[in-house]
Design a protein that fits this description.
The complex is a heterodimer of chains A (238) and B (330). Chain A has 238 residues and is mainly β. Chain A contains 3 helices and 11 strands; from the N terminus they run αββββαβββββββα. The chains are: A mainly beta (238), B alpha/beta (330).
Chain lengths: 238, 330
C-alpha cells in the first residue's frame, strides 16, 4: 500500500530549461520605446515538462526584466531569472534591442537583439552564453502587437565539464506572441519552440512536450509597466 | 492607507531604493533551495506486495514467464543504516546463505521502491537456473534506500552510500557472509560503484552495472544540451566515470543504444573506457532503451540471464556465451 505521493523529478527538468537559457528570459519588449522610457516586466512560464505527475506543465520560471529606451532605435535590456536564483544558480542577461525598422502600417518593425546570458552556481562555475534574436512585430491595432521571431543561442565550449565533447553549439528557438499594450501596462503571451531541430527524447532524463520527438514547446505570460515618458506622451494619438 | 501612483521617471533616491531592495531580495533568495532531493522519485509504502503489486513495474512480463513465486523464498529483512531502518528483500531457500554461496546484492534505480523492481529481482534470482534438473539459483538481497518503500528517512547522496555499506555489513553479519556480486541498475550504479571502489577488503567479487549513471554533471549537461556543470543544480558529486578507475573487481556493463534517460555515449561508455580492472565484459544492446535491456536481449529473458550467470561464474568468454557479449577487457 502506498503511503505518500511520488516526488517530482525536477532536477533534469530544470536542466532542460537551461537547455534554452533563452527560456528563462523575460518576455521581449516588442513595442518600440521612446528615449528615457522605462519598462519593468515580469514573466512566468517555461518549457512544457513532465515534472509533477503525468501532465506536461510549463516549468514555472519567474523572470524580472527591465528595458530602457536610449534612442528611438535602441533600447537597453536586462533581466534576472528569479527561479534559477532561488535554486542556487542566478541567471542574468544583458543586451540591447536594435530597431532596424520601425513598424508602419503592415510593414513590421524589425528588431535585432544581441544578448549575453550569464549563469553561476555561486561557487566555482560561471558560464556566459551569447545569443542573438530577430523579431518581426506588427502594429495590428493601436494596442495589439502580434510578433514572431527566432532566438539563436550559442555554446562556445568545445568540451563539457565531464570531459565529453560538446556536440551542440547553435541552439535555436523560434517564437510567436501577442502583446497587448494598454496605457502604461502591457500584457504578453508568447509561445516558443526550443531546439526544434534536436531530438528531445534521447539521453535526456527530462520528459518534454515537443513535436514528435523533436523540440520542446514553451509558454510564457508577461506583464509590464512603463515608467517615464511613453510613446503616447510623444506622439499624437491616431 | 495611502496609495502612491507610480508614474514618471523614478527619482535617483527611489532608483537607489529600488535597486538596493532588489539586490537585497536577490541575495536573500539566492541559493536558499537546491534540487538535490529531486534526483529521487521515491515513494513510501506501508507494506510490500511482490508479485501482486499493481503499480508501474519494470520487466513485468518476466513474472508471466517465471510464474508465481513460492512465498517461503521471500525473507523480509531490516537492518540499520545510521539512525535509519532499511528494509530489504532476501530471496533464498533459507534465511541465510551457506559459506561458499554466491549472493547478488541488487541496487535499484531512482523510482518508487523495491516493488517496482520486483521482476528484476526475480530475474537475478533465476539467473543461474538452467532447468528443473539443475535449479541453481543465486540468493538475492534487494533493499530500499532511505526514504524509499518502507525504509525510513529522506534520500540523500550520502545516505545512498551509507545504505549500500550497511547492506554489505548486514550480509556479512547476518546472511552467512557469502561471496558478494553487486548488480546495479541506473541510479543504483552510484551506490554499487562506490561500494566496489571503496572495497579494500576484496569483499565484492564482481560488479555489474546496467544503464549506469556517468555523473551528475552528465545528467545535467545532457538535459541542457549545454556545458552546464552539475554543481549548478545539485550539490551531489556522484561521478562513476572517475570512480570506476578505483574498481579492481571484474566489471560487467550492459547498456541500450537507445537509452533515452542515460545516453550510452555520455554515461555508460566513458565508465567502460575508464575501467582498468582485471576483467571487463560489455553488452551493448541494439535498440534497447533505459528500462528494457533484459527483454531486448531476448524476449524470454534467458539471454540476459545467461549473460549474468556466465559473468558471475567467470566464464563469459566460453564458447556458447561469448557471442552474447560485445566486447571484453583486456
Amino acid at each position: 500500500m502506498k503511503r505518500a505521493g511520488a516526488r517530482f523529478f525536477v532536477m533534469p527538468a530544470m536542466a532542460a530549461a537551461l537547455a534554452a537559457l533563452v527560456s528563462c528570459t523575460a518576455v521581449r519588449q516588442v513595442r518600440p520605446m521612446e528615449p528615457g522610457e522605462n519598462v519593468v516586466n515580469l514573466s512566468l512560464g517555461g518549457p512544457m515538462t513532465k515534472y509533477a505527475g503525468d501532465a506536461f506543465l510549463p516549468l514555472p520560471f519567474l523572470s524580472l526584466g527591465y528595458n530602457r529606451g536610449l534612442t528611438r532605435a535602441l533600447d537597453l535590456e536586462a533581466g534576472i531569472d528569479l527561479t534559477h536564483t532561488l535554486f542556487s544558480n542566478p541567471k542574468i542577461d544583458l543586451g540591447v534591442n536594435w530597431r532596424l525598422q520601425q513598424p508602419e502600417r503592415w510593414h513590421p518593425g524589425i528588431t535585432l537583439s544581441p544578448r549575453l546570458h550569464g549563469v553561476s552556481d555561486f561557487k566555482s562555475a560561471v558560464r556566459v552564453y551569447p545569443a542573438l534574436s530577430m523579431t518581426w512585430a506588427w502594429r495590428a491595432t493601436r494596442s495589439l502587437w502580434p510578433y514572431l521571431g527566432m532566438e539563436n543561442f550559442f555554446e562556445l565550449q568545445w568540451k563539457r565539464e565531464d570531459d565529453q565533447f560538446q556536440t551542440h553549439h547553435w541552439l535555436i528557438a523560434p517564437y510567436a506572441g501577442l502583446a497587448l499594450c494598454h496605457g502604461r501596462w502591457q500584457y504578453q503571451l508568447e509561445v516558443r519552440v526550443y531546439t526544434p531541430n534536436l531530438d528531445n527524447d534521447y539521453g535526456r532524463a527530462a520528459e518534454n512536450l515537443g513535436f514528435g520527438n523533436h523540440g520542446i514547446l514553451g509558454f510564457f505570460l508577461g506583464v509590464g509597466r512603463t515608467f517615464g515618458r511613453t510613446r503616447a506622451d510623444t506622439q499624437p494619438s491616431e | 492607507m495611502q496609495f502612491v501612483r507610480l508614474s514618471g521617471t523614478p527619482s535617483p533616491r527611489r532608483r537607489r531604493a529600488i535597486l538596493s531592495g532588489a539586490l537585497t531580495l536577490a541575495s536573500l533568495l539566492a541559493g536558499c533551495l537546491n534540487l538535490d532531493s529531486f534526483l529521487f522519485s521515491d515513494e513510501a509504502l506501508d507494506s510490500y506486495s511482490y508479485d501482486s503489486y499493481d503499480g508501474e513495474r519494470e520487466c513485468e512480463t518476466y513474472l508471466a514467464v517465471a510464474g508465481p513465486i513460492d512465498p517461503s523464498l521471500i525473507h523480509e529483512v531490516t537492518f540499520p543504516s545510521g539512525s535509519e531502518t532499511i528494509y530489504g528483500e532476501f530471496l533464498h531457500t533459507a534465511a541465510a546463505c551457506d559459506t561458499g554461496d554466491t549472493l547478488i546484492l541488487y541496487c535499484h534505480g531512482k523510482s518508487d521502491h523495491m516493488d517496482r523492481y520486483w521482476p528484476r529481482t526475480r530475474l537475478l534470482y533465476d539467473a543461474g537456473f538452467d532447468s528443473a534438473a539443475h535449479p541453481s539459483r543465486y540468493p538475492v538481497l534487494a533493499f530500499d534506500y532511505r526514504g524509499f518503500g518502507r525504509s525510513t528517512g529522506e534520500p540523500t547522496e550520502e545516505g545512498l552510500y551509507a545504505d549500500g555499506a550497511a547492506a554489505l555489513l548486514f550480509i556479512r553479519e547476518h546472511l552467512g557472509d557469502p561471496k558478494v556480486m553487486v548488480y546495479t541498475y541506473s541510479l543504483g550504479s552510484l551506490v554499487g560503484c562506490k561500494l566496489a571502489a571503496d572495497d579494500t577488503e576484496g569483499r565484492i567479487l564482481r560488479l555489474m552495472m546496467e544503464a549506469p549513471v556517468g555523473s551528475v554533471t552528465a545528467i545535467v549537461s545532457d538535459a541542457a544540451y549545454l556545458d552546464i556543470p552539475g554543481s549548478m543544480l545539485s550539490t551531489y558529486e556522484g561521478n562513476n566515470v572517475e570512480r570506476i578507475k578505483a574498481v579492481t573487481a571484474p566489471y560487467l556493463w550492459l547498456h541500450g543504444t537507445n537509452d533515452g534517460t542515460l545516453a550510452i555515449e555520455t554515461h555508460g561508455q566513458p565508465i567502460w573506457d575508464n575501467y582498468a580492472g582485471p576483467e571487463g565484459a560489455a553488452v551493448v544492446v541494439k535498440g534497447a532503451g533505459h528500462r528494457d535491456v533484459p527483454e531486448t536481449i531476448s524476449a524470454d529473458f534467458r539471454g540476459y540471464q545467461r549473460i549474468v550467470a556466465s559473468f558471475i561464474q567467470g566464464r563469459e568468454q566460453d564458447d556458447g556465451v561469448a557471442d552474447l557479449f560485445t566486447e571484453f577487457k583486456p
